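During the second year of the project, the team shifted from modelling isolated chains to modelling whole assemblies. The rationale, set out in the original proposal, was that interfaces cannot be judged from single-chain predictions alone. As a representative example for this report, we include one of the complexes processed in the last quarter. Its constituent sequences, exactly as entered into the pipeline, are reproduced here:
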Amino acid sequence: MNNKPLRPLYIIPYGAWILFFVIAPIALIVYYSFFDLSGNFTFENYQNFFTSVYFKLTISSFWYAFLITFFSLLFAYPTAYFLTKTTHKQLWLLLIIIPSWINLLLKTYAFIGLLGLYGPVNAFLEMTGLGKQQLLFTDFSFVFVAVYIFIPFMILPIFNSLDKLSPALIDASYDLGANTWTTFRRVIFPLTLNGVKSGIQVVFIPALSLFMITRLIAGNKVITLGTAIEQQFLVTQNWGMGSTIAVFLILFMFIIMLVTSGSERGKTGNGKVK
Amino acid sequence: MKDIIRVAALIVVVSAILMFVNAKLNASGGPSAKGTISVYNWGEYIDPDLLKQFEKETGIKVIYETFDSNEGMMGKIEQGGTSYDITMPSEYAIAMMAEKDLLLPIDLEKIPNIKHIDPYFLDLAFDPNNKYSIPYFWGTLGIAYNPSLLEGQTFESWDNLWNSSLKNEVVLVDSAREVIGMGLNSLGNSLNSTDLDELREATDKLKKMSPNVKAVIGDEVTQLMVNEEAAVALTWSGQAADMMYENENIDYIVPEEGSNLWFDNMVIPRTASNLEGAYAFINFMLDPEVAAQNADYVGYSTPNKTALDLMDPEVTSDERFYPDEEARDHLEVYKNLGLEMLGHYNELFLEFKMDMK
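Output from the structure prediction step:
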């Protein structure tokens, strides 16, 4: 073990990475948020954020992020559950992961074709007698495409925690007289809650700042905080205001992280004491 | 420890290979004595054959990149780290860039082909005496529509867009000045208005249009119109020309209350490294035959008077794309309103978009 004295050196790449690519950018964002267009120090951007337009924007961002997360979870949990029951789980899992290797924009453009007035989805609807529907540029298509994009990230952590679950616990639950529903509610779900929580984190947070598909799929009828940041930086060139919105986005993310990870620690603590 | 050394060695080897390949690729780009120029242009805004022709005629290699907004382009040039020799901003952006000292003055002596340009397009308010810019294309903002999808609805006036028969049919361009400008125009105000009350009034009027708005998008609108998925679009003349080229049902009109007249000019940004190449490129693009071929491909209107004679008279006499001077005087050119006002326009536009539910 002659490399022992070198051990502290190993922290250097990690430390440098965190410093340059995590701390420095966040510090810069906070710094820029205190300057107005002409470069004067100001709190105006923060005052501006609390005007009705940005407030409404924040509320609607949260609402859509909530919808996306909710439907992802609704479909991901049963999917992950059945995956663990299949014989070739790794293969099935791979099939779910592969689409996430394809570029996001490419997938989004594909949906423009699929959901169009003359696309295959409408052709099918017409065949079934439902008639043509305006699908593109609706809330439905926005949430649908977003769920499609995020669902692998929800399935993976849930799958992992379900897969780790010992079958002995489930058998024990049945032996003690619990029915299927009670077993799920009292044994399976609580034990996979960590997977659900990390799934929610990786879906909800990016969903808050989605921006490209708001334009391509929702035709800007859905506006998120991400769209507003993009506009401030690229069009208005008001870096201060853009940074201010970004600061709030970071704050919201922190709160979500606290909510989804903090309560769990408290719970296990309580459980042990009692 | 051994692993670290191995990884480090691997990185060095890979970098060396990449550097070698890079050098090879650059060297294989033909005679480099004349050097290269990099051109930073709007998407779909030049006939690619002309770039090859230019390379062949002059021996200068062209590196070609595209942008999709004046602001994005300015941001990139302002941040530095680029070496664009030519770019094509719109008029208000030229004024902004000149103000920020991002442009090099142009020596008109070195561009003999400027004699082909219609004097109407020279010495305009945004760039007196063409100190910084040379005309490339011009056009208008108007309404593209497909009569076969509409029951007799016509668009002499902007107000027609508010008609209740157009429910969920209108596609707007995702750009604050165009949309707010439309609101201002429809109320008979200037699209360079900085009067806060006028702007508020325009935004409130636009909000009443929201049931008619199908989407607020960018270049994707061309495909939607061509596929007849949308019936009406607020768009630029050249984009409308693209649509009409692919779908004969589509028509284009500039409403009578007036609209925006715009110019995209060639400029040499401060980042230029090959001035001689840049001048050669500008002069080449002003050559009547080249300009005619380019206008034919791109679909926007050329300011090149000599080129007009070489083009299909059916196109050049089309009042929709080549309005005469009298009609042009009815239109308005964007002024640089300053960043603060631009921010206000964008905030109102955001408010309008938020209200579209």
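Residues 2-27 of chain B form the longest helix (26 residues). Chain B has a mean pLDDT of 90.
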